[in-house]
Amino acid sequence: MLLCITRAPIRAIAISVASTSRRTKAILIGHDAYLKPTGKFSAIDIEISDHGFIFSGRINKRTKNSLCACSSRSHAVDMSDPANDGKDLEANKGQELTGEKAPDINSAETGIIQEEVRRAAEIQNAFMPLRKLHEAERWMDRKLGGENYFETQGIDRIPEEAKTPPSIWNALMMWSSVAMHVGNIPLGVLGAEYGLSFNGAMSSATVGIMVGALFTAYTGTLGPKLGLRQIATSRYSFGFWGAKLCSVLNVVIGGGFAVVNAVVVGQILSAVSDYHMSIVVGVVIIAVISFILSVFGFRLIHSFEKYAWIAAFVLFVVLYAQGAPHAPPLDTPGTEKGIELSGAWLSFFALLFSSVSGWCSMAADYYCNYPKDTSKIKIFSLTWIGLVVPTCFTTYLGIVLGQAATLNAYPPYADAYNNHGLGGLLLEVWHPEGWSKFALVISVFTVCGNNIAINYSSGLSLQLLGDYFHAIPRFIWSFLFALVVAVLAIAGREHLSTIVSNFVSMLGYWTVSFTIILLIEDYVFRRGVDYNLKAWDKPDELPVGLAAVFSLIAGYCGGGVPGMAQVWYIGPIAAKFGGAGGDVGIFLSGVITLLVYPVTRYLERKYTGR
């Protein structure tokens, strides 16, 4: 085996290596390495865009020198003899062609060898279907210019010299597109269904959104510092195995949001066709579009999200202007009174809190390409503003339409909403008919900004479940995720309000515990800097994770369950508010996690040393 390491990134260097054995194989370590057999295994073409490679097979001295000539600053170690089993790697580490000291191959700065990447690469090369899928990824990326437009990065940590940061303002624009979409309108409509007045719904939504966005804004700051995806950052508190639980929960969260969006799109397209087209068709259309856009990855998502919010903003301004005249006066009372009104206010707060805090397990996915010295304050502030402003804007619109259709019971709006759901309501509000149908079609694409981000992050989370999951390309996981979302959306297409009210608010119980655990770990136990970045994929060097997992479960079961207020279950504490209860699970989950994690983590560090 020959190990060739370069000190600096190299771009698109093609090397042809003669092979004397049909058993020749390559394990490619680094970013965007490409392996393509040519002929009858007579040669291997290796294209490297970053850092280095490992080539194993029968290699003579001449070939070795040719390989290492690929960079003026490279380091070669001969590992061809199986008896060595890699033992001469350390002995030869200092033998660099330039005469300079070779870099540490496990260096966090070079990022050349990552254990999890190596294990996944071995699995890929052992199974032809996986190898072909990855070859297809590389081929697509090269066809698009070879600049990672078709992202093949996966969950691998991004070292500093390999980062390709977009503008810092993308941190604002991206979330504007993610949050400003027609799928947020049903959240506001539920304010009237909870029995809240216009003022009550507005105040509850505003506070819930502003507080929930704090959680997502904080977790996003870990991306530039660690160069890791969000769930991968949780390994420094949940451990290698505990983070897998977070991966599963993250996929469930993303799936829930995506199902809501898909049903909304189905209702809208059905309304455009004058209800001749089934909701199912719209669900399938948005699933396909979201999948196709999500597979291109980080660069396309940032480019798309930078501008996608503009169309939504224009459409929604018109919707405000046409729908607001039929809303009830601001001082119109709601249907709930006394303690039950407090319960309704808290439940609506929980719903909106969860709708923005749900991104806390994905935020760093979109910041890991920013340099580690990127201002935390900028990332935090731009993320918070980018979530709060558009979410409030669309939720307020939903509140206005909900009040007009239910509390004020304006007949055309009430009939359209009761008979055809949100799609029928929007068709009635936008007028005249030609403009209405045009606006509905365009509004469908506003959902894409939200769904492609969900598809992208969910695919990454699934790769974190294990080496075999990692070996499968992200675009395959994104496809399977989109397929499952479509099936669930089709099954629940007639129950949008139930899905929204029951599912979304339940997300907050885990997101608040997740964020508090990461916050305490970062500022209390690691003082913001004590991260061994070489250990991100090494189970034996990461925390055991029992403290974090126990605290998460304690917060959810000890606080979330007794404090939840759902249609199918009202916890004993939530029931104290009477009627439909008052959802206080978020507060209880947060308090319990805040009390439990510092103690259990202290004990874990004391007895395990990590």
Automatic annotation (TrEMBL):
UniProt keyword terms in alphabetical order: Membrane, Phosphoprotein, Transmembrane, Transmembrane helix, Transport
Membrane topology qualifier: Multi-pass membrane protein
Transmembrane segments: 167-189, 201-224, 245-269, 275-295, 307-324, 344-367, 379-401, 435-454, 475-493, 499-521, 542-564, 584-603
Record InterPro entries: Pur-cyt_permease, Pur-cyt_permease_Fcy2/21/22
Gene Ontology BP annotations: nucleobase transport
Domain of life of the native organism: Eukaryota
Biased composition (Basic and acidic residues): 84-98
Region called Disordered, residue ranges: 76-98
UniProt similarity note: Belongs to the purine-cytosine permease (2.A.39) family.
Name assigned to this protein: Uncharacterized protein
Source organism of this protein record: Byssochlamys spectabilis (strain No. 5 / NBRC 109023)
